[in-house]
Amino acid sequence: MSSSFTDRILFGGDYNPEQWPRKVWEEDMALMRQAGVNLATVGVFSWAMLEPTPGVYEFGWLDEVLDLLHANGIGVALATPTASTPPWMNHRWPETLPQNPDGTIRTYGSRNAYCPSSPVYREFADKISEALAARYAHHPALRMWHIGNEFGTVCHCDRCAARFRTWLQVRYGDLDGLNEAWGTAFWSQRYSEWAEVIPPRQVQYVINPTQDLDYQRFVSDLLLGGFVAERDIVRAHNPAIPVTTNFMGFFKGTDSWRWAREEDLVSVDIYPDPNDPDAARDGAMAHDLTRSLGGGKPWLLMEQSPAGAGWRHVATPKRPGLNRLWSMQAVARGADGVLHFQWRASMQGAERTHGAMVPHAGPDSRVFREVCQLGEQLARLGDVIGTRVTAEVAVLHDWDAWRAVELDHQPHSGFRYLDRMREYYTPLWRANITADFAHPEADLSTYKLVVVPNLYQVTDVAAANLVRYVERGGHLVMGPFSGVSDPDERIRLGGHPVPFRELLGLRIEEYWPLPDEPLTLESAELGDFTAATWAEWLTAEGATAVATFTSGPLSGIPAVLRNAYGEGTAWYVATLPEPAALARILASACAAAGAEPVLAGLPPRVEAIRRGDKVFLLNHEDESVEIRDL
Ligand code: GAL
Ligand code: ZN
Questions:
Q1: Of the candidates 586, 293, 569, which has an alpha carbon nearest to the alpha carbon of residue 423?
Q2: Ligand 2 centroid vs 219 CA: distance in angstroms?
Q3: Is the pLDDT of residue 6 over 50?
Q4: How far is the CA of 120 from the centre of ligand 2 (A)?
Q5: Confidence (pLDDT) at 1
Q6: Which helix H or strand E contains 618, and what residues bound it?
Q7: pLDDT (0 to 100) of residue 515
Q8: Which ligand is nearest to the CA of 269?
């Protein structure tokens, strides 16, 4: 059984006709038809054109655009235009502007100039969403709602402070609860009244870590409130139209596990750097995350650049074929649509140099010809619609763990969460072992192997979940500096990692961040290797040492261990091994767990993904390769 939000692979991009005279619209329609475009994202930044003065709407031009698209057989993802306020709002109501931690104001003249707590902003945003929904919810071109754009605006104003206090009251009940959770006995920070509690603003020295962490959680929830408000408004007019907002993959500012639950379909914007040799891996990771956020359902690639991304330091274009390759990668990993930013390259404005499906050169261009080919090829993939990608491996990912491990005053400021994710994901990707991402509290029972690159902060529920998973026969590999703190960012005492000590069969006394000079390790099983940046002073308490340091201050101390626990096996990797060694660890864990590659023995950098009953093979090298005897 298959189900999807579409019955044909969606293909198209952001369409901003308000930047162009009418005669260009006619050309757009002809070119869209030529390219096989079937979905246009409209209205994302149209607020000032739709509501030129407060409360006065001008929908005439949008009526025309939607009718024109419809007449040409092109569907619409219609945006609520609330990501970018019109100047009249910020000018007449300066309190709508967002405030930085140092009290300065970010003004208008760009985009996203709003404080998410501003009642003026909220009221105008709700009203225009209502007006759009009332007018277009039953328009025959409408395929989906696109709420706002890339939510992520942070404000530190007094109104946000008040909302923060309300959020904290729900989380902690009373002020004693907050004082306890934030550890305010430290540095004389005890609060005596709620009014004293503020966002983390500019301070003399290091901010209270739990205050910092809670503000990050709060901002995500605050923005989510804005999404939900607009979603409910548009949904009320026609519940049959799916609602989404475009995520940014591994973006720290919003906890997408929480957000995805509120969406009808999950969509994502990704811009891997064509110059980066690891770009294909980054694409795969973002796709796998997006699919996982939706519980495996088909998802939508809402934005990618068909060429260069204008904001990049070096805006390298995509070489011939690359946009097709990366689009196919998205479809292979579960996307039922591939869209771009944007349809026609802007002539003016901040993004005037950004790549587009119709570049400045016009349709007589390599980019447009490739766009047409892609449209044609995607149209032939209709029978993958609604089919699923299944994974035997789960990589755990948690926004709280990410935020917490990157708070101030961690033992190594260069210890970056996403580096850990990439290090552990890469060998799986290279070996063509498909992985989902999973929340640490999720049901893991369907996975043969669970990989935990880093879980510095962990809830009791998540810890018990992992222990139970292994106890019942699961295989698990855990990376360093995991199981350290609780959700209040309270360090768990008595020898790390407190909630996993029995599971892993070891006890850590000290974390030992290192300068980048590599250390040597010996291992009969893995072969000798090097590691850097991080070590841990630990003692095995039941676990078998698989690799041991042979140089540096921890010489003689085990760094990779394996423990039989219940009916399963848990590995612990207490350092950052060189990539080849980490790949061997994961290969060994996969083999023991029975997690198989989609296809074995493929040439390097040939990616294989199974979706439904199809296998996609993607060659990430320039030279062609021949594959026989599959
Ligand atoms: C996205 C955004 C688009 C456009 C694009 C450029 O972040 O949603 O509106 O700015 O990037 O790469
Ligand atoms: Zn604010």
A1: 586
A2: 10
A3: yes
A4: 12
A5: 42
A6: strand 614-619
A7: 84
A8: 1
**Tokens 């008040």 — which residue?**
162
Residues whose CB is less than 8 angstroms from the CB of residue 273 and which lie 6 or more positions away in sequence, other chains included: 279, 309, 312, 316
Q: How far apart are CA 345 and CA 314, in angstroms?
A: 18
Q: What is the pTM of this model?
A: 0.98
> Which whole number is the average pLDDT over 142-153?
98
Q: Using CA atoms, how far apart are residues 112 and 119, in angstroms rounded to an integer?
A: 16
What 310-316 contacts at long range (C-beta under 8 Å, 24+ apart), as own/partner pairs, is: 310/351, 310/352, 310/353, 310/354, 310/355, 311/351, 311/354, 312/271, 312/273, 314/275, 315/353, 315/354, 315/355, 316/273, 316/274, 316/275
Length of the chain: 630
Q: How confident is the model at residue 630 (pLDDT cuts 50, 70, 90)?
A: confident
Which pLDDT score is estimated for 2?
A: 59
pLDDT of residue 96 exceeding 90, the answer is yes
What confidence score (pLDDT) does residue 559 get?
Answer: 98
pLDDT of residue 628: 84
C-beta atoms surrounding 421 within 10 Å: 22
Mean pLDDT, all residues of the chain:
97
Torsions phi, psi of 513, nearest 5? Answer: -60, 150
- How many CB atoms lie under 10 A from the CB of residue 123? 10
DSSP assignment, residue 625? Answer: -
DSSP helix/strand/coil, 609: strand
Ligand at minimal distance from the CA of 146 is 1
What CA–CA distance (Å, rounded) separates 620 from 211?
44
244-265 pLDDT per residue, tens: 999 999 999 999 999 999 999 9
Q: Is 392 in the pocket of ligand 1 (CB under 6 A)?
A: no
Whether the CB-CB separation of 6 and 143 falls below 8 Å is answered with yes
Which amino acid residue places its CA nearest to atom 4 of ligand 1? 341
pLDDT in tens, 466-484: 999 999 999 999 999 999 9
Ligand 1 pocket member 354 (CB < 6 A):
yes
